Amino acid sequence: MGDIATMFFQVRVPSEDRDCLRFFWWPNANLKEQPVAYRLKVHPFGAVSSPSCSSFALKQTVEDNVGDYGEASCDIVKRSFYVDDCLVSVGTEQEAAHLIQSTTALCKQGGFHLTKWVSNSHQVLQTVPIEERAKDIRELSMENQNLPNERALGVYWFVESDSLGFKVSLPKQPATRRGILSITSSVYDPLGIAAPFVLKAKILLQSLCRRDIGWDEEIQGEDLRIWNQ
Predict the structure, then answer these.
(1) What is the DSSP letter of 94?
(2) Are residues 117 and 201 in the same domain?
(3) 102 and 60, same structural domain?
(4) Cα separations (Å) of 30 from 26, 34, 35, 93, 223?
(5) Rounded distance, CA 161 to CA 25, Å?
(6) Residue 110 CA to chain centroid, in angstroms?
(7) Comparing 7-21, 64-78, 87-101, 143-157, which segment has the lowest mean pLDDT?
(8) Cα-Cα-Cα-Cα dihedral of 200, 202, 205, 209, to 10°?
(9) What would the mean pLDDT of 58-68 be, rounded to a whole number?
(10) Interacting residues of 191 by C-beta distance below 8 A, sequence separation 6+
């Protein structure tokens, strides 16, 4: 698992579009002076367009360099990124070490710094420069210390056991359509890994909608049993 550092800032905004990203600021942060207009030259965090523009630029890097790097590295950049997070699994430690080096080099061609590497293999991590490892494992001994758990896209990766999990804190909500919708929507799972566990609640919610049960009407009987289960 790796991460592109400040990904959005590596992608320039076309000069003809920069007026859309104007803002005012006071010189030297002095509120008594007249504010000055600035324009952003790169895509900022928080703009709706930034993720898609940056992802396009990353994939364009592959197209521009496809003949210079192996198919595996190109495929990783095309298929194994979720915005700035690189999530990939391979069969051997040798393959993992090679792909880390080649994929990092490929991303560099587009001005992207792929870093913060994590692996469940101590041997693979030893091939990664300390400064390019994830912050929590830079000072760990690769000989006898357990690797800390990581998190990406709402999913916890228990590195030592190489397993995935969720930590869900369910708020106390009334057993109503509104409460069920609130709880099911609170599970952040863009990869869909938890979908089989949330599906029953969504099917129940669908059934309540079809029967025109009110938003704040307490459910009863079989519906309540299914929800509590």
Answers:
(1) H
(2) no
(3) yes
(4) 6, 9, 9, 55, 60
(5) 50
(6) 20
(7) 143-157
(8) -130
(9) 95
(10) 82, 153, 154, 155
